[in-house]
Design a protein that fits this description.
- This protein is α/β, with parallel strands linked by helices.
- Helices cover 32% and strands 23% of the residues.
- The protein is built from 16 helices and 18 strands.
- Strands 3, 5, 6, 9, 10, 17 and 18 form a seven-stranded mixed beta sheet that branches. It has a six-stranded parallel beta sheet with strand order 13-12-11-14-15-16, with helices on both faces. A five-stranded mixed beta sheet has the order 2-1-4-8-7.
- Strand 11, helix 9 and strand 12 form a beta-alpha-beta unit.
- The structure holds zinc ion (2 copies).
- The site of one zinc ion has 9 residues, from helix 5 and helix 6.
Length: 418
């Protein structure tokens, strides 16, 4: 997979960039044609992006016309993009998504341009040259849920981005250089040299935080924060268990610790992940291959079960374990995505009599939560360095997803783009 990706990249790099600095001669014609000659502050008119074509086929690196932001949108020179399981679900055909598309939804980068007629407040907040981090849920800001402050349920995000692969005017910002064909965007289409992001999804990244490690703030940490802050409404002193301690799960451990958890129990089947969990502040680790996870969690909590259990794998078995690991009246929070056909079982009578709460949670609220998350990282309460376990080059993205699929990535892999 990796070698075919690098071959395709080499082919593309070898191609002469004749029209690279073509002038904006066609600007009088329509919007799409004028995009051909669009430059970013005198820079390139084209960029490279990683394209998913169809399930179980390797990603290829393709050239695109430079994407153009519209009103309220920001063009970002992508610096880093995290390698997340949700992309993998799309790449394996487990979660249906419009294709071809550019995957990658966990980014940091530098602001290079704003769409025409963008509000001056946005330009002031994210001036050209500022460092930013992007949340994978990009709230429209105006729908029923956004108005209520529940940006994690934004109607436009699900109706346009998740259902159609576009931004909120129903169009993508990505067009292939070779034939002008549209390519869809999974969130902002972050595995590319540039990406267009609605300003509502951005937060300023202080210069003290590195681009590469900070990429995980926009999905892994964002998801962990949303699960503990909003779904679990976690309180100091709560006992927390996290089932599955990869990228998102290990972020949950750290957020639970930051919120004052008394016990933080990490459950996984890989000793290297459990070892890493200990380094990130887990008070106990349980290898579910060697012992019964639920029994062990009960034992650690004096027979009670935890106040909050988080399931970060999206598997029917661990879903059930999660509901069994909580104390009476406790909260089982589900954050692991599964194939759309997956269903789980539940012990009905216990759920009813013992008032077990099963809560789904997806991401967090970009405008209120992302700045808080950045502060946790800036203060060092959240350790970014130990969560990112691998850094790779743009050309190695395919391999990174393959390794993620095979459980070979202990924490999170991040692709360094430019
Ligand atoms: Zn993600
Ligand atoms: Zn909305």
């Amino acid at each position: 997979m990796a070698s075919s990706l690098s071959r395709s990249l080499l082919r593309r790099l070898a191609r002469p960039h004749k029209a690279f600095y073509r002038s904006i001669a066609s600007s009088a014609v329509d919007e799409k044609i004028s995009a051909v000659g669009y430059h970013v502050n005198g820079g390139p008119s084209f960029m490279r992006g990683t394209v998913f074509w169809e399930p179980n086929k390797p990603l290829t690196v393709e050239e695109f016309h430079m994407p153009r932001p519209k009103s309220g949108e920001v063009l970002i020179r992508t610096k880093a993009c995290g390698v997340c399981h949700s992309d993998l679900h799309v790449m394996k055909g487990e979660l249906p998504f419009a294709s071809p598309c550019v995957v990658g939804h966990e980014i940091t980068g530098e602001v290079v341009d704003h769409g025409a007629h963008t509000d001056s407040g946005i330009i002031k907040r994210f001036p050209v040259g500022s460092h930013v981090v992007g949340a994978f849920i990009m709230p429209c800001g105006n729908c029923f849920f956004c108005v209520k402050g529940q940006e994690d349920l934004c109607e436009a995000f699900f109706a346009f981005n998740r259902a159609k692969g576009t931004l909120y005017d129903g169009e993508t910002r990505l067009f292939l250089r070779s034939n002008g064909k549209p390519v869809y965007m999974y969130s902002m289409g972050g595995l590319a040299e540039y990406c267009v992001v609605p300003a509502n999804a951005l937060a300023v990244l202080p210069e003290s935080l590195p681009y590469t490690e900070s990429a995980i703030l926009g999905c892994a940490v964002f998801t962990a924060y949303g699960a503990l802050r909003h779904a679990a409404e976690m309180r100091a002193g709560d006992a927390v268990a996290v089932i599955g301690v990869g990228g998102v799960g290990s972020s949950c451990l750290q957020i639970a610790r930051a919120f004052g958890a008394s016990e933080v129990i990490a459950v996984d089947i890989q000793d290297d992940k459990l070892h890493n969990a200990k380094m990130l502040g887990a008070t106990h680790t349980v290898n579910a291959m060697k012992e019964d996870a639920v029994d062990k969690i009960k034992e650690i909590t004096g027979g009670m079960g935890v106040d909050v259990a988080i399931e970060a794998l999206g598997k029917p078995l661990t879903f059930m374990q999660c509901t069994k690991a909580v104390r009476d009246g406790g909260k089982a929070v589900m954050i692991g995505l599964a194939a759309t056909s997956a269903v789980a079982e539940i012990d009905i009578t216990r759920l009813v009599r013992r008032q077990i709460k099963i809560i789904g949670s997806y991401g967090a609220r970009a405008r209120q939560d992302l700045p808080q998350i950045v502060k946790l990282a800036q203060s060092g309460i959240f350790n970014l360095k130990n969560t990112v376990s691998r850094k790779c080059k743009f050309e190695e993205a395919n391999q990174a997803y393959e390794d993620l699929d095979h459980g070979k990535i202990v924490g999170r892999a991040v692709v360094e783009i430019m």
